[in-house]
Write a sequence for this structure.
């Protein structure tokens, strides 16, 4: 007959191993979405050291080795939506604006067409300031939105 401690240890190790596998699969999913978002096509090991560090920081914004995926990570995987933080770079903010613009393209295009583009820019400015803690120039937001809209118009989409 097996002792209680040996059965307990075996059961505990099995649970810990399953949890480790779950966390690793979550990390892999986060990395895949980030690679797609930042258009990284090659192997991560081939990236320059500074890019690897940036990607690692991003992974840890959405995932932790102790607790697994967090709410922002779930949102990233399910909605492919980047969550802005005070550590977000200008490129992160640009991607966020582009994703939100694509998501609401018709409404934003109509707002610009009717002369209400300032309302759209002010909304982005407020949302980004709340998330990042920095105030962006309106020209940065306007240029990012307008570049996306004008490219879509040129392509006839």
């Amino acid at each position: 007959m097996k002792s209680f401690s040996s059965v307990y240890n075996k059961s505990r190790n099995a649970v810990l191993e399953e949890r480790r596998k779950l966390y690793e699969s979550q990390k892999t999913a986060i990395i895949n979405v980030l690679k797609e978002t930042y258009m990284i096509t090659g192997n991560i090991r081939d990236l320059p050291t500074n890019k690897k560090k940036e990607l690692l920081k991003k992974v840890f914004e959405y995932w932790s080795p102790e607790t697994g995926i967090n709410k922002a990570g779930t949102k990233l995987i399910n909605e492919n939506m980047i969550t802005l933080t005070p550590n977000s770079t200008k490129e992160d903010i640009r991607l966020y604006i582009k994703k939100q613009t694509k998501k609401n393209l018709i409404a934003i295009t109509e707002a610009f067409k009717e002369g209400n583009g300032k309302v759209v820019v002010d909304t982005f400015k407020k949302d980004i300031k709340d998330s990042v803690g920095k105030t962006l120039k309106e020209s940065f937001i306007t240029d990012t939105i307008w570049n996306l809209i004008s490219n879509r118009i040129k392509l006839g989409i």
Observations:
- The chain has two domains: 4-79, 90-155.
- The mean pLDDT is 86.
- The CA atoms of residues 84 and 93 lie 7 Å apart.
